[in-house]
Amino acid sequence: MTAVIRDTVAGLRVTRPGPLALLQDAGRFGVRRLGVTQGGPADLQAWAWANRLAGNAWGAAALEVTLGGLALEAERELTLALAGADLGATLDDRPLSPWQRFRLRPGQVLRFAQPVGGLRAYLAVAGGFRAEPVLGSLAGVVREGLGGHDGRGHALAEGDVLHVGTEAGEHPVGDEREAPAEARPDYAAMPRLSLLPGAQIAEFEGASLAAAFNTLWRVDDRADRMGVRLRGPTLRCRLASMISEGISLGAVQVPPDGQPIALLNDRQTIGGYPRLGALTPLACARLAQCLPGQELRLEAVSAERALAEHRRFRAAFR
Questions:
Q1: Chain-centre distance of CA 30, in angstroms?
Q2: Comparing C-alpha atoms, which of 252, 272, 235 is closest to residue 196?
Q3: Region of residue 288 (left: phi > 0; alpha: psi -120 to 50; beta: else)
Q4: How far apart are CA 220 and CA 229, in angstroms?
Q5: pLDDT by residue for the chain (318 residues), tens digit each?
Q6: Which of these, 70, 115, 154, 281, could form a disulfide with 18 (CB 3.0-4.6 Å)?
Q7: Is residue 26 a contact partner of residue 44, using CB atoms and an 8 Å limit?
Q8: What pTM value is reported for the model?
C-alpha cells in the first residue's frame, strides 16, 4: 500500500509489478552504527544520468527496475528520463531506448519486458519521486524493511502509486535530452573491475593473488543487491579466523570455499571473512549490471587513481 505524502500528487500507477522495482535516492548514511545498511542505487552511474537528464539535483529519488516485467500508467503529464540497462522498454507498445528523456501523457503506459543488455534500468521524473524519508533517506531496502515508496522497503506491487511533486509537470529540465555515447557502458563487453587492495590482502597465498588478478571470473546466479558471488579459481588465505569488522561498499570477501563475494549496497554492516580489498563505486555500478554467467576481470588500482576517477565522475553532476 502506498502512503499519502503531503504536497504531492499521483504520478505513475503500477499496472503490472516486476520482480523488483524500488525507489532509490543516493543512500542512507550515518546509520551503520545502528546496523542499518546504506541502500541506494546499485548502479550509481546510470542512476546519476537518469536524474541529470530529468533535470534533478544529485540525490533525487529515481526508480530502480531490476530484470523488467514492470508496467506503469501515467496519472498526469510528466517528464521522465531512462538510463542504464536495456530492458526492452516500450511506450504505448513503441520501443523506447534508454539514456534519453521523454514525455508521458495521462493514460500512456510504460512497460519493461526483459533484459536485452544489462540488468537494472533507472527511471527518473523531473522533480524527483516523493515519499516519506526513513532515517533520512528514501532508499528502499527490502531486507531491512526501510524506505521506498511506502516507507517499509517493499518492492512495487500492482496498484501502488508513485507520487511526484505538485509542480512535476512544469519542473525545468534543461536542454540535454540524451546521454553522450561515452557515458553509456557496453554491457555486452567483458568488464574490468577496479579494486583497491587492502584489508587482509597480504594474508593470501601468492598463487591466489596471481590468480585473482590474472584469470577470468564468472558471475554466479547467487547475486542480488546485497552482493555478487564470483566463480573461478579457489583463493586461499592464511588467516584461520578474524574478528568481525566494518564492511564498505564493494568489499570483496573470501569465505572458506575460496570463491569471492563482492558486497553491494544492501550488504551487512560487519563481516568476519578476509578481504582482497574493495571495488570502486564505479566498478560496483558496472558489476550491478552483469547477468549471471558473464565473465569479468579484477584489476588492482591505486587509491590515487581510484580517487581521480571518482572525482571526474562526480564533476559531471555538479
A1: 19
A2: 252
A3: alpha
A4: 5
A5: 555 577 789 999 999 999 999 999 999 999 999 999 999 999 999 999 999 999 999 999 999 999 999 999 999 999 999 999 999 999 999 999 999 999 999 999 999 999 999 999 999 999 999 999 999 999 999 999 999 999 999 999 999 999 998 766 566 677 889 999 999 999 999 999 999 998 899 999 999 999 999 999 999 999 999 999 999 999 999 997 799 999 999 999 999 999 999 999 999 999 999 999 999 999 999 999 999 999 999 999 999 999 999 999 999 998
A6: 70
A7: no
A8: 0.95
In 154-204, DSSP assigns E strands to 161-165, 192-197
Residues in the chain: 318
Residue 94, strand partner residues: 91
- 160: which 3 cell numbers? 501502488
Among 139, 106, 275, 125, smallest CA distance to 195 is for 275
State the sign of the Cα–Cα–Cα–Cα dihedral 257, 260, 264, 267. positive
Distance CA 315, CA 313 (A): 6
Grid coordinates representing 71?
A: 508496467
| Pick from 318, 56, 50: nearest CA to 183 | 50
Angle at 164 between CA 177 and CA 178, to 5 degrees: 10
Q: Report yes or no: 91 and 110 within 8 Å, Cβ to Cβ.
A: yes
For residue 175 the three cell numbers come to 536542454
Q: With H, G, I as helix, E, B as strand and everything else as coil, classify residue 313.
A: helix
- The phi, psi pair for 111, rounded to 5°, reads -120, 145
Question: What cell does 278 get?
Answer: 574493495
Q: Give the residue carrying C-alpha cell 527518473.
A: 124
Between CA 198 and CA 237 the distance in angstroms is: 14
